[in-house]
Amino acid sequence: MLSKAADLSLPARPPGTSASPRGTPAVRLDGVVKRFGAVTALEETWLQVEQGEFLTLLGPSGCGKTTLLNLMAGFLEADAGEIFIGGDLVTATPPYEREIGIVFQNYALFPHMNVAKNVGYGLRMRGVPKREIARRVDEALALVKLSGFADRSPRQLSGGQQQRVALARALVIQPKVLLLDEPFSALDKNLRGSMQVELKEIQRRLGVTTVFVTHDQGEALSMSDRIVVMSAGRVRQVGTPDQVYRHPQDRFVAGFIGDVNRLPGRLEACAGERATVAIRDLRRDVEATALRDCAAGAEVDVFVRPDHLGVRPAGEAGSLPACVAALVYQGSHIDLYADLADGGRVLVRMPGQGALATYAPGTPVGILVPQGGLVAFPPEP
Amino acid sequence: MRPAIRRRPFLPLFVTPAVLVAAAIVAAMAAILRYSLQAYVPGSLDVGGFTLENFADLGRPIVLRALRDTVLICFETALITLVVGYPVAYALVRTRSILLKSIILVTAVTPLFLGEVVRTYAWTVVLGNTGFVNATLRQIGVIERPIQLMFTEFGVIIALVHVTLPVMVIMLAAALAHIDRDYERAAQSLGAGPVRAFLTVTLPLSMPGVVAGFTTAFAWTFSAFATPQVIGGGKVSVVSTLVYQLGLSSFNFPVAASLSLAGLVLALGTMWVVRRAARPLEALGGH
């Protein structure tokens, strides 16, 4: 997919070059900026959501993801830039004319209407004939597996059921874009997983373009076609879950997505696409993109996933000397925390149960650093 | 239950004042009840023996008219206050500007700070034949001769709305502040313009506040005295002014007492009817 590869070269995509192989994008943001007083909540942002895509806005609270969602919904006005939905310029269009569906964090089901009235609300506002409303409400409730709940009051529903109603209400108007504002955060963990699967299934079946806001990187990785990683009002990286997970483009993304270890290293050489870094006396290859501005010999931070590290008997070649600090049993795997001889603690994620007996706390070990799967960034300024 | 939860050492401290207040009210009510059942001795402050005649006196046309007018004036005042107060409360709750919020709040609440007499005399200045309203209307040529506002029911209602407004605004604002903004946003995202979102979502959800505000305004107005006395100037007779006239001008304490009781019963009865009638409305916003 050409467009996805191209998106990796964010943050700046010049205007007018947004032709997409899949036709008109469902949503396009051209240089959108949002300020609240002196605070810039969203710095100039260029972004495109393809038709039928499940795009996630991921970042910690205050990163600008909700601002971005509210701009798409029309609840906020952009200070600069243009917003297109389905090819139409909507920058100045009020929310009620944007043809969008929103599932709010607290669902915002109208408490004075029953389930059917809630779901049919958007159709009534559009002047759809009564009989057609009844039919489409039935269909929507069947879609979210709540047939037979039409006469219930929202108060009589569980959190998961309320969420389904909110989803049915947003989908029944056949929106051009479905916006989801942290819809799972109010659900307990077990329910969350099954609702995620179900939502993804419905989304795929209907092919509705979806923009999903979350701070939960697990949700983002498991549900998205593409993830937009944001922090401090800026888009840090746009890419598939795999690209974002395995090829983070800056140290924020590397640190935010998934568990990660940071090892102190030194840049040895930078040649073309690849660079060589030294971690103590281990030489490893990393992508050079982020290190272009660093001189040879400069200190760098090397990021490595806990499941890429290995544990070996102390002193084995290709490993860093360390001492086991703690073992945490996690069911499907075991988390081993080890203190490096040079200082700093690393997390090693190991499958299997044997490790529990083998590596008691205090045992000297060698931490095996793999040849691949490493990324390095200049240290924080 | 842990014993620590059952022991509430502060309870007597909190309950004592309430008991004292309640006792005072009960004593006053008992005194009024006693007076209402005793005979009026003309020319004397003392009262005679047991009688039910005072209540029979309530059937006189002048009393019945006062009772009816009181209910009507209270009803109209509560209604007008609601209509005027709702937009103010809405603006108060929804405006983002702190400055504007403060201005609205101060303007809306100021009538509470002015003494009843001061406020009422201010209205006589505004409503009089050469007062602000008439002078302005004549200046711009809307009227040739002054409209009579002083000593009319309409004038009384205007002044009563003014003093009732703070209570209404505060009660409505409390109700509106409880309505999550996401309801309106959800309505808008589903295609409802601001007016329709308000009519179909915000207004029904604020109904409990509307009913509470209305009944409170009603009771608040029922007990008003200085306003109907001064603005009405004897031409507008309501329960409170009639009680004053009977009790402190004619020194007919027994009939004044029975009329007070009748007024109390009427106020409670009307409020009960209003609440009953509003129950379906309240259920709309039951959340």
UniProtKB/TrEMBL annotation, chain A:
Taxonomy, superkingdom: Bacteria
Catalytic activity reported: ATP + H2O + polyamine-[polyamine-binding protein]Side 1 = ADP + phosphate + polyamineSide 2 + [polyamine-binding protein]Side 1
Sequence ranges assigned to domain ABC transporter in this UniProt record: 27-257
Keyword presence, Translocase: yes
This protein's UniProt keywords: ATP-binding, Cell membrane, Membrane, Nucleotide-binding, Translocase, Transport
Enzyme class: translocase
GO molecular function, one term: ATP binding
SUPFAM superfamilies membership: MOP-like, P-loop containing nucleoside triphosphate hydrolases
EC annotation from Swiss-Prot or TrEMBL: 7.6.2.11
Chain spans, region Disordered: 1-25
Pfam families, sorted: ABC_tran, TOBE_2
InterPro entries (alphabetical): AAA+_ATPase (IPR003593), ABC_SmlMolc_Importer (IPR050093), ABC_transporter-like_ATP-bd (IPR003439), ABC_transporter-like_CS (IPR017871), Mo/tungstate-bd_C_term_dom (IPR008995), P-loop_NTPase (IPR027417), PotA-like (IPR005893), Transp-assoc_OB_typ2 (IPR013611)
Similarity remark: Belongs to the ABC transporter superfamily. Spermidine/putrescine importer (TC 3.A.1.11.1) family.
Functional note: Part of the ABC transporter complex PotABCD involved in spermidine/putrescine import. Responsible for energy coupling to the transport system.
Subunit annotation: The complex is composed of two ATP-binding proteins (PotA), two transmembrane proteins (PotB and PotC) and a solute-binding protein (PotD).
Protein name, entry field: Spermidine/putrescine import ATP-binding protein PotA
Species this chain originates from: Methylobacterium trifolii
Gene that specifies this protein: potA_1
From TrEMBL, chain B:
Spans through the membrane: 70-93, 98-114, 149-177, 197-218, 253-274
Membrane topology, from the record: Multi-pass membrane protein
Keywords from the UniProt entry: Cell membrane, Membrane, Transmembrane, Transmembrane helix, Transport
Ranges for domain ABC transmembrane type-1: 67-272
Subcellular location: Cell membrane
Cited Pfam families: BPD_transp_1
CDD domains, sorted: TM_PBP2
Family as reported in the entry's similarity comment: Belongs to the binding-protein-dependent transport system permease family. CysTW subfamily.
Name of the protein described by the UniProt record: Spermidine/putrescine transport system permease protein PotB
Source organism (scientific name): Methylobacterium trifolii
Gene it is expressed from: potB
